[in-house]
Design goal:
- This protein is of the alpha+beta class.
- The chain has two domains: 7-81, Ubiquitin-like (UB roll) (Roll), CATH 3.10.20; 86-238, 2-Layer Sandwich (Alpha-Beta Plaits).
- 25% of the residues lie in helices and 16% in strands.
- The strands form three sheets. A five-stranded mixed sheet has the order 2-1-5-3-4, with helices on one face.
- The longest helix has 17 residues, at 83-99.
- The radius of gyration is 19 Å and the shape is globular.
């Protein structure tokens, strides 16, 4: 018999909420219609806390904590939207824009980009830090797909879906800091990969225009992510 899951009582933005002890703050917030911005998190994938956009304030703690990896505790009093958090999130998004070459007007995912939508929601109209303008490659060696490193935000969704759902582990991350890049196999061109199945799951989970399908127009670049919870459930049932 499975052990009984305890229920915790907490407060989010002044609302009293009950949650299972194995749930994270982000999961509980979404279940109750409370929006917390994310870029690296996606239902059906493991959580890594990479983008830091889901940080929340917890009464009694001077630190901001990531909602996607912090589990609920009895009596928590959580704030998901404050001037401090909005300022912090704007700074993160501005740094993401400045690190690579995100030009929405000429991007294949213009109008279907989570980074673009988040910037609009946060009221960002300009970036207040210097742009780095790195010279990054565009790998179009795959017969169906393209990876544009200029638009990658290192959320690692592609890495996780390829490993955890497809089981191919074609993608990985190489380097550190500003030199970090997503790579296929041992930094081989995508088209030369011996492990890639060509399923396209990595393309559909990408939040920006870093991974896209050849021959697709902007209007066709709406990505399908609804398959992930279903595939994850099927994977768990096979174990």
């Amino acid at each position: 018999m499975k052990p009984q899951v305890k229920i915790k009582t907490l407060s989010i933005d002044g609302r009293d909420i009950g949650a299972r002890e194995d749930e994270t703050i982000l999961e509980v917030a979404r279940e109750n219609g409370i929006a917390i911005p994310t870029l690296c998190w996606l239902e059906g994938l493991s959580t890594v806390g990479a983008c830091r956009l889901c940080m929340v304030e917890i009464e009694g703690s001077s630190r901001l904590l990531p909602a996607c990896t912090t589990h609920v505790e009895e009596g928590m009093r959580i704030a998901t939207d404050s001037e401090r958090l909005r300022r912090y999130r704007r700074q993160i998004v501005e740094l993401i824009f400045s690190e690579r070459n995100h030009v929405c007007s000429v991007c294949v995912s213009n109008g279907h980009c989570e980074l673009q939508s988040l910037a609009q929601a946060l009221g960002i109209v300009r970036v207040h830090v210097p742009y780095r303008y790195p010279r990054l490659d565009v790998d179009a060696s795959h017969p169906r797909f393209v990876v544009d490193h200029n638009r990658c935000i290192l959320c690692t969704r592609c890495v996780r879906v390829c490993d955890e759902v497809e089981g191919a582990h074609t993608w990985d991350v190489s380097g550190r800091g500003v030199d970090a890049r997503v790579i296929t196999d041992l930094a081989q061109p995508w088209g030369a990969s011996e492990s890639c199945t060509g399923c396209g799951k990595c393309v559909h989970v990408c939040p920006t225009g870093a991974l896209f399908e050849k021959g697709k127009s902007v209007a066709e670049m709406s990505k399908r992510r609804q398959f992930l919870p279903y595939l994850t459930l099927m994977r768990e049932e096979r174990r």
